Amino acid sequence: MKSVILGGILVASLLALIIILFRKKLGLSIFTSIGVHLVMAAAGIYVVNYSGWITGLYIPLNPTTIGTVTVLGLPGVGLLLGLKISLFA
């Protein structure tokens, strides 16, 4: 029963996302915006790793961490640091 409900939610949200993407006329500006966010996310993680502000913690540069920081912004770096501290300390 639980998997049917979760599957229904997944299908409904996927359909809503497709409707939003096709309804809006997105040009090439969306790709430049995403590119800028990806670069800024990688730069934010790099600064935290190599600045020496927090010693002993390292956030790897992989698609998951960069994607998290891209979506959440700078608070995403804080989220990753908090997860690292709470799970591995």
Describe this entry's structure for a reader.
- The chain has 89 residues and is mostly helical.
- The longest helix is centred in the first third of the chain and has 22 residues, at 2-23.
- The protein has helices at residues 2-23, 29-50, 63-72, 74-88.
- It has a domain at 27-88.
- Helix 2 (29-50) crosses helix 3 (63-72).
- The mean pLDDT is 83.
SSE inventory with pairings:
Elements: H1 2-23, H2 29-50, H3 63-72, H4 74-88
How much helix is in the residues? over 70%
Mean pLDDT: 83
- The total count of helices amounts to 4
Q: Main beta sheet: strand number and arrangement? A: none
Supply Rg. 17 Å
Give the overall form: flat
The secondary-structure element order is HHHH
Counted beta strands? 0
Structural class: mainly alpha
User: Can you tell me the residue ranges where pLDDT is under 50 for at least 5 consecutive residues?
Assistant: none
Q: What portion of residues belong to β-strands?
A: under 5%
Intertermini distance = 37 Å
Protein name: Inhibitor of the pro-sigma K processing machinery
Pfam families: BofA
Keywords: Membrane, Transmembrane, Transmembrane helix
Index terms:
89 residues; single chain; 4 helices; mainly alpha; 0% strand
Summary, kept brief:
Helices cover 78% and strands 0% of the residues.
